[in-house]
Write a structure and sequence with these properties.
alpha/beta; Rossmann fold; 2 domains; 8 helices
Length: 231
């Protein structure tokens, strides 16, 4: 259970709930889109992000993961993969502050964030690891990945695509992390994650699953936190 007194704590967000909004059915709106819009408008984390100045509700997922695992510390070199629109980057920038280096990377453009180096590039490019190490002044201490491909609406296909992205991010993290480093990655439960988990267990002292309170209960989304990297 999150501490309601800490940023992103479940109690803090829940206390901000407003009167529920109901979205009426319209001829041009499908039932699924109506349900999505109603859920979005009534999501306390969406409202909290607007109040707190975060670019996305995903910011609270990282806050809650950090609360549990102690990921964000001063003096770290941190890489945020697939950072746009920047919710996770905003959290990391606030938490690490002095003597740290934070790089945000995405193939999409992203508005500037104070104290952050933002790169618009593909992390799968052959020269990406060396470019990033040069920019950070050395290997990363923490790689964050909230990456997810565009969905098709077919659960089986989407699960395979998401896990393929997680595997690519995991291999990239192994290439760029310093000894003792950590990796945080979005996972989706569904049976295709064993290969990625086995690979990470060979390279990290601890690998643990976590589902932050900010992750919707009906979603199969979870996060894998791998700590204690050994090349």
């Amino acid at each position: 259970m999150s501490d309601p007194k800490k940023p992103g704590g479940l109690g803090t967000i829940a206390s901000r709930r407003k009167k529920a909004v109901r979205v009426k059915a319209k001829s041009r709106r499908t039932e699924s889109s109506r349900q999505w819009l109603q859920r979005h408008l009534n999501d306390p984390y969406v409202a909290a992000a607007q109040t707190d100045g975060y670019r996305s509700r995903a910011a609270y997922k990282l806050l809650q993961l950090d609360e549990k695992f102690g990921l964000l510390k001063p003096g770290l070199r941190i890489l945020d993969l697939g950072a746009a629109p920047g919710g996770w980057t905003q959290v990391a920038a606030k938490m690490i502050k002095k003597n740290s280096k934070l790089v945000a990377l995405d193939i999409l453009p992203m508005e500037p964030i104070k104290g952050v180096d933002i790169l618009q590039m593909d992390f799968l490019a052959d020269d990406a690891p060396e470019k990033l190490k040069a920019l950070m002044g050395g290997p990363a201490d923490l790689v964050l990945s909230d990456l997810a491909p565009n969905t098709t609406g077919h659960p089986g296909t989407d699960h395979l695509r998401i896990m393929a992205m997680a595997e690519l991010a995991a291999h990239f993290a192994v290439d760029i992390l310093a000894p003792g480093g950590a990796f945080v990655c979005k996972f989706f439960q569904g049976g295709a994650e064993k290969e990625v988990l086995d690979m990470l267990k060979r390279h990290f002292t601890k690998t643990r699953h976590a589902k932050p309170a900010a992750s919707r209960a009906e979603s199969s989304e979870t996060y894998l936190v791998a700590q204690g990297f050994h090349p």
